[in-house]
Write a structure and sequence with these properties.
There is one protein chain. With about 575 residues, the protein is an alpha/beta fold. It folds into 3 domains: about 1-315, ABC transporter transmembrane region fold (Up-down Bundle); about 325-410 and about 495-578, 3-Layer(aba) Sandwich (Rossmann fold), CATH 3.40.50; about 420-490, P-loop containing nucleotide triphosphate hydrolases (Rossmann fold, 3-Layer(aba) Sandwich), CATH 3.40.50. About 65% of the residues lie in helices and about 10% in strands. The protein has helices at about 10-50, 55-100, 105-110, 110-135, 135-155, 160-205, 205-210, 215-265, 270-315, 375-380, 405-410, 425-430, 440-450, 450-455, 475-485, 505-520, 530-535, 555-560, 560-570, 575; strands spanning about 335-340, 350-360, 365-370, 390-395, 400, 410-415, 425, 465, 495, 525, 540-545, 545-550. The strands form 3 sheets. Strands 6-9-10-3-11-12 form a 6-stranded mixed β-sheet, with helices on both faces. A 4-stranded antiparallel β-sheet has the order 2-1-4-5, with helices on one face. Helix 6 packs parallel to helix 9 (about 270-315). It is elongated. The structure holds adenosine-5'-triphosphate. Adenosine-5'-triphosphate binds near residues 344, 347, 371, 377 and 417.
Length: about 575
């Protein structure tokens, strides 16, 4: 938690003022019983002398003190709320920026659902802690200690009653805290689980409906929801007992003070006003102890949240920018793999073994192979989503580990296997590839990607809205928009991961022809499943279980590579092969 205090530094003035106001509030609340005691003790003398001016004066002071209490309470609450809101905003920002730099492995380690809970719910818990810290955590100990001192000063004869009351209260608080603290810590984990189920349900809604899995998913959600509810009810039930138990205790304590105090009036010369003040001090002390109990109950939950937030902030990103970035002159359109082997973190076996190939400007390299043979992994390594286990990947002549990630990715235009579009217009989505692209460049990219036709048919053309995830366009249209987004970047290296699979043959061949006109000075790497899509490539890399089993043109591979020949024969007729 202390690590997170650095986010409070810039609010030091607001915190100092809030603390000052809280101290003034404590002073006010402990002064009122004094003044009340003066009034009550002064009544006999005033009635004898028939002079009530002193009583009025003391009453006036009470009103003034109450006014001061009201003002400082409002100010302290305001400062605490503003500081906590600012702290939460800064923390969310820090989390977002940290997560942006995560490699895919760190995403997998914490999990997307948990990252969302940590950025929202956990930060909210910490925000509440800051409010509580600036108000209750300051006030409770001050009130408690100051109240005890004042009570003892006013009626030392009754000190023993106060000691008994405090001891009894501490026992109740200890029992409640020991039952609730462990359960509060479990609550956040259950919330994570609920978020995970909810997220999967929403993103996979089409599959769930298509497979009629609504009732199964409802059951899964109900289970998580019920689990969270049961835990929350269990913890709140215990907390709920605390208040009535303490209220009963406080009323009994008041009766006890009155009982023994009234005897003191008879035997120990205790004044009535002093006894009344003592009751109020005792009340303030008891309230302060309850506030301390609430803090002890809430603190572990907030600390659990702090731990979860710190886990995200402290996570060492595996993919780091080099301390000394390469200033080697970048050549355009080169990608080279030198004896690259790669194993996913936590995987038992390497996914790629001893891969070597190179591409040159204007050259189209295709990668083909069975599912799971490692085709997408090759693209992941070029983009440095992961670091190689052995060997070297270089882009435009420089080892990718010697470039800043920003510089590396600025060299590359990538169309992933699963195309993602963002909410906004068609134009916005294409512009995501190059933020300063002109309307003309956007239109040109769409024409090359064979997307201009269907965009023009849309009601608002390039200004037509795209739904979140691109759900209001077809799979083939989504692919073409993703290609246009990549093309508008005019990068030295293009990576297409199974990008044309949803297009019909005619559209695909038109797209390929237009595309290769555009990428004459760039390296183009296409991962493909369809032989017809890749057979005209300048070189074809055939992967089998993470190893290169063939590298050459279609014609060369037909003569030399058994695996390639099998793939071709399974897809093309004898006439087409001939
Ligand atoms: N993040 C990951 N963690 C661990 N293993 C992974 C990860 N991503 C992929 N793999 C494994 O690496 C292997 C290669 O995956 P990759 O996605 O590169 O295959 P692919 O040839 O592109 O397959 P497809 O044609 O089906 O897309 C697979 O066995 C897969 O299970």
């Amino acid at each position: 938690m202390t690590k997170l205090f650095r986010y409070l530094k810039k609010y030091w003035l607001a915190i100092a003022l809030a603390i000052a106001f809280v101290v003034i509030q404590c002073w006010g609340q402990l002064t009122l019983p004094d003044l009340m005691s003066d009034i009550v003790n002064g009544i006999p003398a005033a009635s004898m002398s028939n002079d009530l001016s002193e009583l009025y004066r003391t009453g006036g002071k009470m009103l003034a003190v109450s006014g001061v209490i009201a003002v400082v309470t409002i100010l302290a609450t305001l400062f605490a709320a503003r500081t906590a809101a600012g702290f939460a905003k800064d923390l969310r920002q820090a989390l977002f920026e940290k997560v942006e730099n995560y490699s895919l492995h760190e995403f997998d380690t914490i999990g997307t659902a948990s990252l969302i809970t940590r950025t929202t719910n956990d930060v909210m818990q910490l925000q509440q802690l800051v409010v509580m810290g600036m108000r209750m955590m300051m006030m409770a100990p001050i009130m408690c200690i100051w109240g005890i001192i004042k009570a003892i000063e006013s009626a030392p004869q009754l000190t023993w009653i106060l000691a008994v009351i405090i001891a009894a209260l501490l026992v109740v608080v200890w029992i409640v805290a020991s039952k609730t603290i462990p359960v509060f810590q479990i609550l956040q984990k259950k919330l994570d689980r609920l978020n995970l189920v909810m997220r999967e349900k929403l993103t996979g809604i089409r599959v769930i409906r298509a497979f009629n899995k609504q009732s199964y998913e409802k059951k899964r959600f109900d289970e998580s929801n019920q689990d969270l509810t049961d835990t929350a009810v269990r913890v709140n039930r215990t907390v709920a007992i605390l208040m009535p138990a303490v209220m009963i205790g406080m009323n009994l304590a008041t009766v006890a003070i009155m009982w023994f105090g009234s005897k003191g009036i008879d035997t120990m010369g205790l004044e009535l006003g002093t006894l009344m003040a003592f009751v109020q001090y005792a009340m303030q002390v008891m309230f302060a102890i309850i506030a301390c109990a609430m803090i002890f109950v809430m603190l572990p939950r907030a600390l659990a949240s702090a731990k979860r937030v710190n886990e995200v902030l402290d996570m060492e990103t595996e993919i780091k920018d080099p301390d000394v970035k390469s200033d080697a002159e970048m050549k355009r359109g080169f990608v080279e793999f030198k004896n690259v082997s790669f194993q996913y973190p936590g995987a038992e076996e390497p996914t790629l073994r001893d891969i070597s190939f190179r591409t040159e400007p204007g050259q189209v390299t295709a990668i083909i192979g069975g599912t799971g043979s490692g085709k997408s992994t090759i693209l992941n390594l070029i983009l440095r989503f992961y670091d190689v286990t052995q060997g070297q990947v270089s882009v435009n002549g420089v080892d990718v580990r010697q470039l800043s990630q920003e510089c590396l990715r600025a060299q590359i235009s990538y169309v992933p296997q699963k195309q993602i579009l963002f909410s906004g217009t068609v134009s916005d989505n294409i512009r995501n590839g190059q933020l300063d692209a002109t309307e003309e460049e956007i239109r040109h990219a769409a024409v090359v990607a064979q997307a201009d036709g269907f965009i023009s048919e849309m009601e608002n053309g390039y200004a037509s809205p795209i739904a979140q995830g691109g759900t209001n366009v077809s799979g083939g249209q989504r692919q073409r928009l993703a290609v246009a987004r990549a093309l508008v970047r005019k990068a030295p290296v293009y990576l297409f991961d199974d990008t044309f699979s949803a297009l019909d043959f005619k559209t695909e061949s038109k797209l390929r022809a237009a595309l290769f006109e555009e990428t004459k000075e760039s390296a183009v790497i296409i991962v493909g499943q369809r032989v017809s899509s890749i057979m005209n490539a300048d070189q074809i890399l055939v992967l089998d279980d993470g190893c290169v089993v063939g590298l050459g043109t279609h014609k060369e591979l037909m003569d030399t590579c058994e695996v390639y020949r099998e793939i071709v024969e399974s897809q093309l007729s004898q006439d087409e092969i001939a």
